[in-house]
Amino acid sequence: MKLKKILAVVLSLLMVLSFAACTKAPVDEGNSEVDESNVNSENALTFEKEGVIKIGGIGPLTGDAALYGNAVKYGAELAVKEINAKGGINGYEVEYKMEDDMHDAEKSVNAYGALKDWGMQMLMGTVTSVPCTAVSNEAANDNMFLLTPSGSAVECLQAGDTLFRVCFSDPNQGIASADYIANNNVAKKIGIIFNSSDVYSTGIKDKFVEQAAAKNLEIVATEAFTNDSATDFTAQLTNIKSKGAELVFLPIYTAPASLILQQANTMGFAPIFFGCDGLDGILSVENFDAKLAEGVMLLTPFVANATDAATVNFVKGFKEISDEKYLNQFAADAYDAIYAIKAAAEKANVTPEMDVEATGDAMKAAMVEISIDGVTGAGITWTADGEPSKEPKAVKIVNGEYVAP
Is residue 42 part of a domain? Predict the structure, then answer.
């Protein structure tokens, strides 16, 4: 008898517990008394609709160009974090996933395939020009929308009409550099050191030479190197010095540029060194004495110590999630790229249910209709050929900081 009573009590308790579990307050927008300790993600409380918009990213997270890839990664992640905190895109959560390509075209194509398997709906990448060109062919075949933050080679956008960029193209950088040097009387006699095995470097160099002639600038020497010989620049510097160059134009990346500055200092050669966006980040190169970059000039649309509200907020947020060494133009371009995607996706009413092809058609139509005020420029717009419209800026490194010349 006692056993039956005990079993009855136990069964009653189980029923009470079961009822309590079934009647627990659901997590939805209409419940104002949700216990947030029982919610795994704050996003469950902010997104209006079910589904996720997946944005892929590709770039060098390891290797010689890792400075650029990681800058893009953190810049994009900051933008996604901000967007999700305000309800996502069209009420949907945004998820960003970046794959490492080590600045290698084949690895970049493989990364593109991996992201497609993940469910990527659009691509914010790739970071560097040669991998971007390879991936752009794949994206064009799929009608995948691609917005590269920093793939500046002309070839990056030639494969199709769903391909866009945030940075200036190589020709535009070469032209803008020559114009700036001539219009501001920076120098008259110019030497050039460029990477003949890199499409980014050769593209800028070719247009710079062409525009320099139109601006009556004298190119006294043009010296090349390749990826396999990017360690000793003594011969190039010696020849340029002997020709009386007042300025050395460096349309190259930071790794070889840091060696050029070191070797020029060793031989007592102190011209003005002038570069483009590839030189952004020179102060953060490992084992490089940043004092050797004093006086270096470069084109960049982003200056971290600018005092406008957009830049101040971006810098503050970036420092909260990443190492300051990645706070450069590439990070800013990626940040603006994600916000451009948001603006276009909202204009086009993109949803997670749309397939890649439909998303590509909608996004390419919307991109030419939007305008964003970003940290790399105000009122940025895009043309149907994928090119951005914004003002180039030049900075000079003084006491370890970028300042207006």
Answer: no
